[in-house]
UniProtKB/TrEMBL annotation:
<dbReference type="InterPro" id="IPR011051">
    <property type="entry name" value="RmlC_Cupin_sf"/>
</dbReference>
<protein>
    <submittedName>
        <fullName>Cupin</fullName>
    </submittedName>
</protein>
<dbReference type="Pfam" id="PF00190">
    <property type="entry name" value="Cupin_1"/>
</dbReference>
<feature type="domain" description="Cupin type-1">
    <location>
        <begin position="97"/>
        <end position="190"/>
    </location>
</feature>
<dbReference type="InterPro" id="IPR006045">
    <property type="entry name" value="Cupin_1"/>
</dbReference>
<dbReference type="InterPro" id="IPR014710">
    <property type="entry name" value="RmlC-like_jellyroll"/>
</dbReference>
């Protein structure tokens, strides 16, 4: 499942990144607990966690290459909402969100940022990411404009800086399953955007 690595920044630019080769990442008995420990080690005593996204992407790729368990942990999409979220690790005081997300075909998210760094790896299906950037004007401080899009397939990994704005849509005729890890969200900096009314509201 060799894929591509991407980075999206607050200016809406999509950057192709160097991707570790899957065969260089093979490990015996590489489990979620080891991944989480290594992520904590990478982030320990770092002021700007986003600066460590290359190392974190590599750890995510190592996890999905080696862990059948992680690849098999997902829920069927909710018939009503079109999506389901399965939290993979939850401990009081643990600052990261680690989960799988399933989207039914055609389901799409709101336009949003995360208020923290994030990494998403596609496990199954196809996902279209559309990117935006802020483009304020005197009469619309929260105006945004579309800057591009990319279709992701199994094995692709995309990462985001805290101010990156995007929306996602499951494309194709099967559900999309992703592995997602996010840093600690700053609720004052996480927004949902309306590109027509030029509104940004807390998300």
């Amino acid at each position: 499942m060799q894929g591509r690595d991407w980075l999206v920044t607050g200016d809406g630019k999509l950057q192709a990144c160097k991707s570790a080769r899957a065969w260089d990442l093979l490990r015996e008995n590489y489990r979620l607990y080891r991944f989480l420990t290594e992520v904590e080690d990478v982030l320990n005593n770092v002021d700007d966690e986003s600066s460590r996204l290359p190392e974190l992407r590599m750890l995510v790729r190592r996890l999905i290459v080696n862990s059948y368990w992680v690849n098999s942990q997902y829920l069927e999409p909710s018939p009503k909402a079109g999506e389901s979220v399965l939290l993979l690790y939850d401990e009081l005081g643990f600052p990261l969100t680690v989960q799988t997300v399933t989207f039914a075909p055609g389901t799409f998210s709101t336009i949003h940022n995360h208020g923290t760094w994030g990494i998403v790896a596609v496990l199954k299906g196809q996902e279209k990411n559309t990117f935006w950037r802020r483009n304020p004007s005197p009469d619309a401080q929260n105006k945004i404009e579309k800057t591009g899009e990319v279709n992701l397939s199994p094995g692709d990994i995309i990462s985001f800086t805290p101010d990156a704005i995007h929306c996602v849509q499951a494309v194709g005729d099967e559900p999309t399953v992703t592995f997602n890890i996010y840093g600690e969200t700053d609720p004052k900096e996480r927004f949902e955007f309306d590109p027509v009314a030029h509104i940004a509201k807390k998300f």
